[in-house]
DNA sequence: TTACGGTTTTAGTCTTGACTAAAAATAAAA
DNA sequence: TTTTATTTTTAGTCAAGACTAAAACCGTAA
């Protein structure tokens, strides 16, 4: 059974909103994520339910099935591999890849993805630090914590961003935060939740709590 | 004005059938090429006419406009660049690329194509020997002649294939004909039009007139 | 000049994936 | 336990792109 581009996009959205299939997802949540109207979502949920990639109980939201999870992870795998390709091979900036990958992820060719993976040397993470599922849909997740959760004097390394919008990524470029940077929390301001971060042992960075909430690190 | 995937496919078909815009094209020809029904084609021709990429006179076939030619060549450029990518970078065989390129050619991103072109080192020909239009739609065509048109004792070099079907390309692989091969016509059989060809000064190849008609060479 | 065969267009239908407006169901408040 | 607010679904519509069947047109032959 084959999914259309629209169905793949819905399923991916449901997967993300459900935190990898752990939570159930409401019609309105999906509508917001996909930027469609709830009425359109209701329709699609019925169809995805019939295809048994989600379990759909009217008025009570949806849960993704095992089959659905597998399908969503395949699409996510393709999306992230293409992002790596665009950045590593075609010198795209990390804030330029998302829309293109959103299209490329729907190209149907198992051989293409297998060869692309090989060509990219089997990358484990995409340019935003998100893990790339293997061909069986297995994801090796790293324990990650938002910068905002870290305490003063704690050290670590930036490994991913929660928000992949161009606006946010460009801001990180501007201030010199990047994936792989070593960081240390110098100060947390009680009043507004903003933070002072030492980057690579040399540069001090001030960031609002909104920024700190969208940078993910591993602690060391 | 933006074209849908379907519209791009129709326009490309019309471009090819019209020999690069020189001949007018009938509804039935398009239907055969796209593998749809004439009724569907009529409908689409009306739409393409409204978008002024073709000139459509009911019952009298269509002619592609300058704007249409430009659009078609952009799609062809993308198709052929992706074919080069698949063969040169992902080790696809030349008979495996067409279907995938047929999808990839519709990805919308000028930056992607510009960077891909650069990454591939500005290739001038695709894996089947067809020229790749530049970003302005200019094609530098080589003078090519079908093998079947060559006379006994004439020499040359295989530069392209007319038929890009997997069946034909696999056959060429099997018998050892390839783009770039040096060839010489040893014999032409009056009776059935079949030919005897010397390849790379060492291997003799017998081919039917159908095969000889689909191999293109430059004479030397 | 008319009849005919082949080509093309029109008319009507279907599916997919959107939308708006209205109805129905659920959840929260009184 | 009603009432109300919010969410969700249904009903009806639309556009794109396909299809079949029927009508219209074109060019040729009688
Ligand atoms: Mn997508
Ligand atoms: Mn990403
Ligand atoms: Mn195509
Ligand atoms: Mn080609």
TrEMBL record, chains A, B:
Pfam families membership: Fe_dep_repr_C, Fe_dep_repress, FeoA
Top-level lineage group: Bacteria
UniProt-listed SUPFAM superfamilies: Iron-dependent repressor protein, dimerization domain, Winged helix' DNA-binding domain
Main location: cytoplasm
Lineage: Bacteria, Pseudomonadati, Bacteroidota, Cytophagia, Cytophagales
Protein's job: In the presence of manganese, represses expression of mntH and mntS. Up-regulates expression of mntP.
InterPro entries in the cross-refs: DtxR_MntR_Metal-Reg, Fe-transptr_FeoA-like, Fe_dep_repressor, Fe_dep_repressor_sf, FeoA_core_dom, HTH_DTXR, Iron_dep_repressor, WH-like_DNA-bd_sf
Presence of the UniProt keyword Cytoplasm in the record: yes
Family to which the UniProt record says this protein belongs: Belongs to the DtxR/MntR family.
Subunit structure: Homodimer.
Location(s) in or outside the cell: Cytoplasm
Organism of this sequence: Algoriphagus antarcticus
Domain HTH dtxR-type: 3-65
GO molecular function, one term: protein dimerization activity
Name assigned to this protein: Transcriptional regulator MntR
Alphabetic keyword roster: Activator, Cytoplasm, DNA-binding, Manganese, Repressor, Transcription, Transcription regulation
GO cellular component: cytoplasm
